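Need tokens for this chain, all 425 residues.
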Amino acid sequence: MDTSMDFRACSQLGRALLVVLSLAFVSAQAESPKPLSLDEAVRLAEQQAPSLDARQAALTSATDAVGPAGQLPDPELVAGVDNLPVTTGDAFSLTRDFMTMRKVGVMQTFTRREKRDLRTRRAEASAERERALLTNERLSVREATAKAWIACWAAEKRLGLLQSLRARANAQAAAATAALSGGHGSAAEGLAAKSTKVLLEDRITQAGRDVAQARADLVRWLPDAGDRVLADAPDAFELGVDPDAVLRHIATHRDLLTYDAMERAAATDVELARAEKHPDWSAEFDFQQRGPHYSNMVSFEVRIPLPLFASDRQDPMIASKQAAADQIQAEREDALRMHTAELKKVLAIWRSAAERANRYEHEVLPLANDRADAALAAYRGGRGDLQATLGAFDNAVEQRMVYTDVLATLGQAWATLHFAFPQER
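Here are the structure tokens for all 425 residues:
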């Protein structure tokens, strides 16, 4: 047998297998989606949100209405019969009586230029309001998606931190078992260690449930990407702007963007109501055909409404529109105060959560871990008791629970502040 040929064949087979495995690895890497960042989640949700499609349709509708608002009314076709006899032998004859005329004509109402300009301004204000509502809805979708992403990230963070304690729980149970075997412990201590381990698993199960619920909320905004692995969370300790400057920009809060357009629309309504005291006019031109023995005729007439009872019609309407304008101004002031108070509260929550998260990350959690490790080491060395060890372990569990709650609070407050204003401000 030629061993050199066998060696070459095996070598070629090995290289081929290596190429196949490399291609499979590259293909798997290409097919595996990258972790879902918060920025990508917000962008995808914005592309898929039905509420934004609805608001965009409303804006298109309002924008398309601007042009027609300033046009003259359509002309009207006039057709009929004048002076048709209904008695004697000429009854219902169109040709026997000289006064009977069949007419056809056209009528046009001429709206005053001032009114047409005001109606255009009113339609533009409506379109501007819809544009502000679209901006508001876009920011609302971004905030809701960010909060869902942060809640999911925080839930997974809690699950991971609790799972990291399994090694300590197992070590405690092993130490209690060893102490019992060596005659230094009691059966009660062994059961207490096992109970702590079981309770940790129960916490882990609850944390897994919270992750599943948070994922369900995220999938609402991201039907096609809500199950992807999450990337690292953004730096919630930074707002991107001076926190003290947030309140100075309160007038541009997303929920206040519509009030400028609403006030312009209300002021235009007042002017339109006043313009009704100056009536429009209409003109009509008719061709009138009479019987064969009589000449045909043409007619031209002008109609002008007479606002003789303005105190009962136009003046109350002006007062009504003015009251509506005053209502919008009062509502704006109320909304301004409400959102100012809310932002102050959220800023306080964000500052407190940022300080606490930093303290837990650099002081509380390391101290809890060191305390748990020291207590376990002392118990193993016969210098401590199991109750102190289990107490230190329970404290480590609780501190992780509180820490993840603080992280979630920090992230939620950050999202509220980050998406409260248009990003281009």
